[in-house]
């Protein structure tokens, strides 16, 4: 198996809470995860389940005053939780790159493409101006942008959505970070472009052997790209497994319902049924017991675990609660 | 449903019936006003000023406004002349009362005319859009760059039979433009709203939609514009009168009184002639503007929801 | 970019033409004719009629208009009725004075407004923001001429800190340095007051710009690159928030010109606004016509300038 040095990120008992009306509510609630070199870890879950919050905790992008982060995010023995800003600025961009959902909004409308890529090189490399310019062109070429010289002098609004996302990726990989966080990188794009962007991400990984955390709504994307999947619900991980395992043997009722809502999957369970409702808003989220219980009220009260924990059912496959053994869906 | 962000707040109407709207802008705005202590105080003061100037004017005798050289340049607190007299012997207190009333009346009249004009043109321009909108906007842009103050002043000297009414028209000629622009922007925003679409689908006429549907929805914007407009227009009239080209000499204004300060002797040694008018104008201006900003805050809050 | 600017300049031309037509007919409505300032009262009626014929006053209005425009291009704005000099030379000096006053006012205005906007935006709803809001309310709601009168009274007459009239003292000591100092002393009070009461819009735009931009995605991108917070603020948040303000330069210039009459009257500052008031009291219509034409064109050019600045600083407009 992998050597221990492959471990890029070791997240332990991460809690990220936001202050709402004076009180902190955990949007990420006791999450433990690892990310290894050369691995694409997908995080899936409904809107509001805390995926973006998890990503911004890793890269330290949150409003310091109204956010409380506890637990550990170990990156090469360095704990990113509570790391001071100037140190963190040496990690952001350099060691961890981030790719965002809306490629237009994520680029400064008043800066040329080239300058926006160059900015990150300026802070993390010793390259001089001329070398930086050359590197910018290299990067644009690497992310598959034709005519880099021209594009580097254009402004974001002059490019198409797919092109912009390539630019964002170029920014993220500019300093060859070992970790890439991609928060719904294809949601805002056309289907055909989506596939291209995902291919690009995979190519980049082949070249750099970075570890990628891919946040997405799209289980199709997951099945095609990811190595491992973590399913989040209400700030918690309810199931984590290698991708094939998860698609063939989903155990948590929430995972199953996600798969069911995905078109053309071959989960052979005629009893599967879509679960109604949405993730409760942060201030209404439960803080003990199983957070998912209210969504499946027909389940017999005795089968709930009091405080469900993750159980390892096979190597690398963990699921919260043991209920999967006797679980059924209402029809 | 899982994974369906878009569906969350997608309320559809059957058969084109309008969706229920938030409570009328006016009520909400009024509620906000009553919550603010200083706003209530402002309104009280404004009412007092209205009473003082309008009722007071009834008690001002004609002689006290007439020129009477013998009584000229009396200091403040003289017998019979609480604030003294000007060079011509006119009683300053009487001028203050009547001038205050005149300035308020003109401010309100100009506002009424220019808001009605602005509203009609803003509605038409914003509702129909396209070429109509382009034409109106060009005209408005043009009027707005004109040196309005100077043109009004020149016109006051060449119009025959110049009087208070002509002044009202002259000021209104220029001040409807900002109202029209202001309303247009809101109407543009309303145009795409569901209730207008629904109304259109059910076959209401454009005029009916404009007045029955759109107008009530921008009612709070109208109140804001009226309130701030009055303050602004009082400022314009008093400014013109201050320079001596506003109200004709026979009709006192707060501006005429402040205009006494243009004389180095008056500004230095006879502050009671012009300072009370300054104070009254400032009170009027600040109180009205305060009420206006409270309205604005309320309307903003309503829009944010 | 050049295309956009060229198109914008072309839009300005019909505006100026309409303005000139409007002013020409306004001038026609005014009493008096080009000879009022020249002729000898003893001249007999026939001579006057002949002169009128010669000067084309009996021509069709549009011929007269074209002649007027032709003269305008030659810099000939006619003769003053009262001053026995050409309008052009009469306005010359005054225009300079107004220019300096306006320039100092604009500079001071932004010098106050930009820091205030930044502070208000950064400390939204905290005490600095609230203090600035109160200040804005006070300076916004006061009618300009009242502010000028009160400032003149307080700082000019009561405290004697500043001169109360003119651009330069009669008794100024020789030497260019003293001269400049004395002129500055005359300009500073009117400019300061005009600047203070003109900050509101700038402050508000900057404040909301900063508040809104702070949470924009591209700011987050900049942070994710490891750009230090101070640079994120200056290079991304502030720069993008200053954009709408540049669009407002035209309005600021326009407002300043509109206020010139008032400010120059109160402070007896011999600029174009004061000249306007002097001319109106003497019904010197050629001067008045020239002045409104100038002010009108300046306002139009002011708008043009802000549009051009906008095209230069905002790449999104450039390509359209
Ligand atoms: N800055 C914040 N302040 C307060 N609450 C927040 C903040 N950011 C996120 N939340 C709340 O935290 C919860 C998780 O949000 P998060 O954005 O992480 O969800 P997500 O899984 O990324 O959803 P989506 O799929 O919509 O992006 C939500 O209830 C959200 O409202
Ligand atoms: S059975 Fe287990 S997972 Fe399901 S709702 Fe109950 S506690 Fe949660
Ligand atoms: Mg998210």
Automatic annotation (TrEMBL), chain A:
Pfam family of the protein (one): ABC_tran
Source organism superkingdom: Bacteria
Protein's name in the database: Oligopeptide ABC transporter ATP-binding protein
Membrane topology of this protein: Peripheral membrane protein
GO MF: ATP binding; ATP hydrolysis activity
Species, as recorded: Holzapfeliella floricola DSM 23037 = JCM 16512
Keywords assigned: ATP-binding, Cell membrane, Membrane, Nucleotide-binding, Transport
Transmembrane annotation, as ranges: none
SMART domains: AAA
TrEMBL record, chain B:
Signal peptide: none
Listed transmembrane segments: 38-60, 104-127, 214-236, 272-295
Subcellular location: Cell membrane
UniProt keyword list: Cell membrane, Membrane, Transmembrane, Transmembrane helix, Transport
Chain ranges of the ABC transmembrane type-1 domain: 100-292
Family: Belongs to the binding-protein-dependent transport system permease family.
Pfam families assigned: BPD_transp_1
InterPro entries from the UniProt entry: BP-dependent_transpt_permease (IPR050366), MetI-like (IPR000515), MetI-like_sf (IPR035906)
Protein name, per record: Oligopeptide ABC transporter permease component OppC
GO terms under biological process: transmembrane transport
Recorded topology in the membrane: Multi-pass membrane protein
Gene3D superfamilies: MetI-like
Phylogenetic lineage: Bacteria, Bacillati, Bacillota, Bacilli, Lactobacillales
Main location group: membrane
One Gene Ontology term, aspect cellular component: plasma membrane
Domain of life: Bacteria
Automatic annotation (TrEMBL), chain C:
Mode of membrane association: Multi-pass membrane protein
Gene Ontology CC: plasma membrane
Keyword Cell membrane in annotation: yes
Domain of life: Bacteria
Domain (ABC transmembrane type-1): residue spans on this chain: 95-306
Coiled coil stretches, renumbered: none
Residue intervals passing through the bilayer: 9-27, 99-122, 134-155, 242-267, 287-313
Compartments (UniProt record): Cell membrane
Biological processes per GO annotation: transmembrane transport
Database matches in Gene3D superfamilies: MetI-like (1.10.3720.10)
InterPro entries referenced in this protein's UniProt entry, alphabetically: BPD_transp_1_N, MetI-like, MetI-like_sf
Keywords assigned by UniProt, alphabetized: Cell membrane, Membrane, Transmembrane, Transmembrane helix, Transport
Family membership: Belongs to the binding-protein-dependent transport system permease family.
NCBIfam families (UniProt xref): Opp4B
UniProt name for this protein: Oligopeptide ABC superfamily ATP binding cassette transporter, membrane protein
Origin species: Holzapfeliella floricola DSM 23037 = JCM 16512
